Amino acid sequence: MKIIITGSNSMLAQDLIPLLKKDHEVKSFSRQELDITKKDIAAKIIKSNEPEVVINCAAFTNVDKAEKERDKAFLVNGTGVQNLALLCADAGIPLCHISTDYVFDGKKKKPYTPFDNPSPINAYGESKLAGEKYVQWILNKFYIVRTSWLYGRGGSNFVSMILKMAKERSEIRVVKDQINSPTSAMTLANGIKHLIKSGAYGIYHITDSTEGGISRFDFAKKAVLLAGLKTKIIPVSSNEFPAPAKRPAYSVLDTTMTELVLKISLPDWGSGLKQFIKANNKKQRC
Ligand SMILES: NC(=O)c1ccc[n+]([C@@H]2O[C@H](COP(=O)([O-])OP(=O)(O)OC[C@H]3O[C@@H](n4cnc5c(N)ncnc54)[C@H](OP(=O)(O)O)[C@@H]3O)[C@@H](O)[C@H]2O)c1
Q: How many folded domains does the chain comprise?
């Protein structure tokens, strides 16, 4: 399959590109090469490469910054995605677009299915919902893939931040009242690989498996343990870390439909984390 990937420097794309290159003809573009907010440039690239699917990894992802830079977040996550959807509609090809659990408010207290109504509580979530809406309004053939707490080798993330702090300090305070499922970028990349071959268009949730969610505290504790560090992890409330953007307290995504449709089992969160930390340790020794 001929595939175009936008946002090639994103954490996700660092794992997605090499994985898809094993079986497909992949052309990937950074923001400098293909700014999704510039429709003419995107149009030229899509027309000349004749892809069979476009995968959008480009996004404004700084959740706190989005509160102050609302227009910028909406420009990339809303208008940019609208541009790609219009171009895919013209070309008669599907768009695979990556979205977030932050489209939900966290009040359900049970895992969110793709059939639940979004109701974001921060500007980032609102802008990502705008992107989802444009995809659904413009295209018949689309894959919207929501994920949460993404970590991978190609970007700064919660795990790398915790491990860095754990090496420098004897104790770290981590919030215990935000519950979610972490997602290894490899798990997400693998799910996308299956999805784009499926032709089963729709909204999908892809995360590692947690049986109802874990807290950031649990996540940090396990990461430190697996890295063989002795740092003490102290559970605290979110009130100790006031941030510009509100976060949903519980935004676990229900992945049942993904596993049924794609006939895959999403890995346990511990195994993805173990693999990531092992690879990280190896990289540091080299
Ligand atoms: N990280 C998470 O915890 C998380 C959770 C849920 C959902 N997601 C979603 O998953 C997807 C991938 O996330 P990620 O963490 O891998 O992203 P990321 O590492 O933050 O990378 C985002 C990429 O988008 C590029 N970009 C920004 N504006 C652009 C534009 N106008 N045109 C083209 N490229 C642009 C950035 O380019 P520069 O490098 O030049 O800045 C960057 O390479 C996103 O859709 C995100 O919303 C992420």
A: 1
